[in-house]
Structures are given as C-alpha cells and as structure tokens.
Amino acid sequence: MEFESVIGLEIHVELDTESKMFCGCSTRFGEAPNTQTCPVCLGMPGSLPVPNKKAVEYVIRTGLAIFCDISLFSQFHRKNYFYPDMPKNYQISQYDIPLCIDGHVDLEMEDYATTIGVTRIHLEEDTGKLLHIGGAGRIAGADYSQVDFNRAGVPLMEIVSEPDIRTPEEAKAYAQKIRAILVSLGVSDCNMDQGSMRVDANISLRPVGREELGVKAELKNLNSFRSLQRGLAYEIERQTKALQNGEAIVQETRHWDETKNTTSTLRTKEYAHDYRYFPDPDLVPMEFDPEWIEGLRAELPELPDERKERYMSDFGLPAHDANLLVETKATGDFFEAAVALYGGDAKIMSNWILGDLTYYLNSENVEIDAGEVKPAHLVEMVELIDDGTISGKIAKELFSEMFKTGKMPKAIVEEKGMTQISGQDEIAKIVDDVIAQNPDAVQEFHDGKERAFGFLVGQAMRLTKGRGNPQLINRLLKERL
Amino acid sequence: MAISEKDVKHVAWLARLALSDAEVEKFAKQLDVILEHAGKIAELDTKDVQPTAHAIPLKNVLREDKVGRCLAPEVALANAPHQEDQAFVVPRIV
Ligand SMILES: [Zn+2]
Predict the structure, then answer these.
(1) Cross-strand pairs, A4
(2) pLDDT at residue A12, rounded to an integer
(3) pLDDT surpasses 70 at A272
(4) How confident is residue A270, by pLDDT bands cut at 50, 70 and 90?
(5) pTM (2 d.p.)
(6) β-sheet bridge partners, residue A220
C-alpha cells in the first residue's frame, strides 16, 4: 500500500528583545547561570508580570508578514503543568485568542510550488534550562538536574503550521522560509545552535487518497534543518514499515538522535496533558487599534519573496538563483553588497556565491556573515579574472586560500606568485620544452589522436604550475606542432 | 454527586497532592458543594452577556522593552533547598 505523510511543524522562536516577556531581566544569551532573574521570572508570590510591548509588536509583524488575520482583542492564559524548568508551575501562554491566526507561506520546490497554511501564532514565555547530571546528560538515567532560570521568561513566539506538509524537503523549505522571513523582519536571530529557533514536527501516515489522519508521532530534538529533514525521513520509513507489517502506530513523543540516525520513544509524564488553561488574572486583555496595525503593515521591510522578485527583474537572475540567494537574509545581503561593489554582471556574483562560497561554507559549517570571505574579497578576485591577471582555474585555488586566511586576493596573488603567465615568449619557451620532452605524445598527435593534444596542454600547464594562460598555450602548441 | 472519587484523584495528581482515601471522600463532597454553588450561574440567562476576560475593566497594560535590575544569584538561590554550581538542583525527573 502506498502511504502519504502528513506533517505539521511547531516552530518556537525567541524574540530578539532586550528584556524578558513579563519583567525587566536581560535576555542576553550565554551568561552565568541564574544571573538574569527577578521575583517575576522566578514566580515569587506577590510579583506581577507586565507584558513587553515590543514582543507583542514583533508577533503582530510576523503575522502580517505571513498573511495572518491579527486579533484586535487578545489575552494571556495560564498553561498549568509541573516541570522543573517552570518556576511558577504554569507557563504564561495564549489559548483561544492568539495574536495571529490563518496565515500561509508559499514554497517553491525544485519542480513545483506549494502553500503551507499557518494555523496560529501565539506569544508565550520560554522556560528555564535543565542540565542533567549523570546518565550521560540524558534525562532518562540522570541522577539529578540543575536548573538555570536565565532563559525563563524570555519572549517566545510559537508558529503552528497546518498539517499541509507532505515531504521532509517541504518541511525543511518551510522552516527555512520562516527563518528568512523572521530574520528579515528583525524579530529574531533564529539561531538554531543557540536554541533561539526550535522546531518540533508532528508526523503521521495515511493511505494515499484517504482523508482521515493517521496516528501521529511528535518529533523532538530537531536542532538543525538537516536534522529536521533526516528525522522526518527516518520517521516516515519507520511508520511505513510498521503499517505494512500491520502494527499500530502509538501516539507518542520521539527523540531524534543525530549521531545514531534514529528516533526513540521519549519518556515523558505518564498521563495525557491536562493543562487546565484559564485567563491569567494578573494580566489584563489587549485591544489593538486597527490603524496601529495598518501602520505596522506599512512599515514591513522587504521580505524574501519580494527580494526574490527584485533579483529576477533588476539583476536578470534565473528563479533558481534568486530562490537560493534569498534563503537566508545574510546570503542576500552578501550578494547585494557584492553586486554594488562590482560593475559587471550580477550573475557572475551569484555563480561564485552559490558555487564555491557555498561549498566552502557548508564544508566548514560556517555562516556566510561569519566567514573570512567578504563581498570585497569576491569582487576583487573577479576583477582579477576580468583583467586577465589570473585565470578562472587559478581563481579556484585563490578562493580556497582566501577562504582559509581572509587575505585579499591581490595580496595572495603577489605572495604566491599566482599571476597568469600571458607573455608570448615565456609560454612559447614552455611549449617548446613540452614538445621536446614528449616525443611519444607528439607522435600520437600526428597519428590523429586528439587525446594526446590534451595531454600536452596539461604538461604545459604543469610546467607553469597552473598559471599559464590556457588560450595562449593552446594556440602556440597548435602552431608549433 | 457530580464529582466522582476518580475526578478527585485526577485533580490531586495534577496538583501533586497525595490524598488518603478518607480525604478523597471528604474532598469529593466539598468539591461537589462548590460546583453546585457555581452551577447557579447556569440558571441565569447570559445570552447577551459577553464573556469576561478580566474582573476589572482595564486593558493594554504593557511595558517598554527596557532592561531593569536583576537579583544577585546568591539572593535568587537563597531559598533553594538544594543548589550546585549557582544552579537550583532538582531530583531526577523521570
Ligand atoms: Zn525577571
């Protein structure tokens, strides 16, 4: 039987505010444990939370950017549960009236387009951080846990998608698109390594053509886009096998293990969730002026889709290039800075960014804005190719050096003597040497073997250590043979 | 009785309370009385009454995004039954 996967994502994003959601504690990441707490975020009796206006604004901006309806009336609820990362034993969250509902995100896949619905976006507070001691740091088997409440109360936005996602690739593309939008809006840095963007996935399978949903598993610990894609792929395989063997899928939370490449049941509370939401009596409702919301809409910055259109119309880039360049805000920024510096064809910049630069960044796992190669490096290098100082082949070598050291291309060319040899006499001498040293190949060439010519060119390039002007070598070699 | 002993046990578990059988029986009766009292509201016609979001007529109490003062960690941890490495210590979770 053929199965179709039904996937929905819950994306949690820490908002980039200075202070926490309901108190003035700093949200800075990486400080010593429990240095950013106060009676409010520690849940001390008698303390009163007051919502951070900027956080509310950030959520509404996000909602506007992904075509949501904005609730003109909204309020906070208490979500009650006991867990050591929650000092109050409830989390302030939103329940029946989230700030935003009914949005969508358009995705452009390799050979088709699709739209993923967004059910809701709500605002809540983050929890503290647990450090499990013993049991190799895993919760199951730990002797005890340490709690750091620096993160407790940091504004957290949850974006819940409709179960419209059908493949792991779509899930990845959707999460990447959400990130690009949020970073463009400036509402979060969406750093998955530091946990400021966290993705949970719900996945179930159903026979193709059937409407009703199968039993779902919730997948956690998807700490990168790669994990998201691979975790889902694994889960599809696991559930498919189970269903084909006539086994029932258990509704449960599963933990993705990146190193083992498997998911496993996550031991949680034995009872089903019973959060007993009720309106938080410490917080009064919010009512928004439609004019204020329209003002926020008018102030929205350029978003990835618009940017992509502009790259296609202003720079004449193919859709494929434009799509990849707007995948992260930093990549688009890099491209635009490079194009602004470079007088020539924007497509050349795009080629280098999506080619060599992306290759090196991926292999070293470096973000584009953290890498040694800046737009100025790339432009200077391409200008060296344009004026014939170096060949495209040398440029590849130069690029690797530039990526490693961050030195400017001209400096590297000088230091390593990488300039292209275009002197007629110099090349002629080398070609003569090659002919003299390889009588067999010369004979083969005269016998009509094309391959021998390539071999001779290669020999000449070798003698010039790759710096010979290939066109000149070709021409002189032909003449002399 | 609207409240069963099973309900009481469930609510007690949610609140992490250990109740004796005698207490379960006692609280079941008490909760029943409370619910019955609150149930009086169902006798009223509330068709044209908007749901109340809050007991006092206030809205939009928000603060600017400004960093204020935090507690010194030793103060924050002062009442913790157990601590280690400037963190609160809790017993094993699962
Ligand atoms: Zn605080």
Answers:
(1) A206
(2) 97
(3) no
(4) very low
(5) 0.84
(6) A255
- Contact yes or no for B73 and A35 at CB 8 A: yes
Pick from A194-198, A346-350, A421-425: least confident: A421-425
Query: Looking at residues B81-89, what average pLDDT do you find?
Result: 96
Give the residue from A282, A234, A274, A242 showing the smallest Cα distance to A258. Answer: A234
Instruction: Sort out which chain B residues have CB atoms less than 8 A from A34's CB and list them.
Output: 73, 76-77, 86-88
Q: Report the candidate in A105, A157, A144, A294 with the shortest Cα–Cα distance to residue B90.
A: A144
Query: Which of B68, B77, B90 lies closest to A84 in CB terms?
Result: B90
A55-72 confidence digits (pLDDT tens) = 999 999 999 999 999 999
Rounded Cα distance between A481 and A445, Å, is 9
* Domains of chain B with bracketed CATH: 1-43 (1.10.20.60)
CA distance A402 to A382: 13
Subunit contact A18:B65, Cβ cutoff 8 A: yes
Query: Are A144 and A133 contacting, i.e. CB atoms less than 8 angstroms apart?
Result: yes
For position A233, what pLDDT does the model report? Answer: 96
CATH code of the region A424-480? 1.10.10.410
Do A118 and A86 contact (CB within 8 A), yes or no?
A: no
| Cβ–Cβ gap A131/B87 under 8 Å | yes
Domain positions in chain A are: 3-295, 302-416, 424-480
The contacts of residue A316 (CB under 8 Å, 6+ apart) are A346, A347
Per-residue pLDDT, A478? 85
Start-end of H helices in A8-154: 53-65
Q: Does B45 touch chain A (CB under 8 A)?
A: no
**In whole angstroms, what is the distance from residue A106 CA to residue B48 CA?**
41
| Nearest alpha carbon to residue A274 among B45, B79, B64, B13 | B13
**Hey, CA dihedral for A297, A298, A299, A303, is it positive or negative?**
positive
Alpha helices in A118-191 (DSSP H): 168-185
The pairing of strands A3-14 and A197-207 is antiparallel
Nearest to A6 by CA among A248, A209, A157: A209
